Amino acid sequence: MSKTKLEYIWLDGYKPTANLRSKTKIEENFSGKLKDCPMWSFDGSSTRQAKGGFSDCLLKPVAIYPDPSRKNGYLVMNEVLNADGTHHESNARATIDDNNDDFWFGFEQEYFIMDSKTQLPLGFPVGGYPGPQGMYYCSVGGRNTHGRDFVEEHADLCIAAGLNFEGINQEVASGQWEFQLFAKGAKKAGDEIWIARYLLDRLTEQYGYYIDYHPKPIKGDWNGSGMHANFSNEVLRTCGSKEVYETICEAFRPVTKEHIAVYGEFNDQRLTGEHETQSIHEFSYGVSDRGASIRIPIITVEKGWKGWLEDRRPASNGDPYKIASRIIKTVKTANVVALTT
Description:
This is glutamine synthetase. Homooctamer and homotetramer. This protein has helices at about 150-160, 185-205, 235-240, 240-250, 255-260, 300, 320-335; strands at about 5-10, 20-30, 40-45, 55-65, 75-80, 105-115, 120, 165-170, 175-185, 210, 225-230, 285, 295, 310. By secondary structure, it is α+β, with helices and mostly antiparallel strands. About 20% of the residues lie in helices and about 25% in strands.
């Protein structure tokens, strides 16, 4: 009789930035299939999701991946439900209107690796600063590259877990890195970002590090951290029309505040109009423009206006479920039917 470790992972009720939570369930003769993951429960009063007098919340398994660090283990992503089976208010995944997986998302997750002893990014000396930005981006060599072993191990874990992991690179600031994930389907894309973050955070326990997802952890002339959202639907992938692209981009303008509201806490410290960002108070779009709110990739234009868009505003600590949900809602308001028929 075999026993399997199922790591049930969910998001807590902290606002405005949720945290990952997890606990292990032991199952006998488990099939490895999502349909055989039972519902479970947890103490919502300890995660700001329920009152102590009626504290049970339910965990509904929605995605499963092999756990690359455990023998006979799986990572199980969950939605949080109320005790009566309705969606908990913290359950942003349930708000995504993409049941047919028409929307494809590629997220670029930036983050800082922090030394737990110094509480500074890797490469930052105590009481001072490393050399200025310029030599860290996509660098090689011990003088400018910090944390490669850790980042490589995280990439291996994500690939072994079956995530659609697409790449890694050191970013513009010392100790700042990025990984990219892509999925056909907004819910799946969100699931995979959260599982990748879980693996990243768990790995820090072995290194004496922690991950800082704050969009501007180092003040001054240092780049902040974002989670650029590359997205498309069938219209964007096939329309072949500059006018359609501009119509969809314009649909974002009147709901700028609604997007910023779900794009991550402290994002005003990052979206200043400097360091490859547009001001949080402005909205713009442009071809190959990394200083715009939405960038139209040059590849999309070269392919005859068939491709995707990149919303550069989401912060590194943003919830991919909330971000995808809001983007989909806005794109669906764009009146492009007449332009594509």
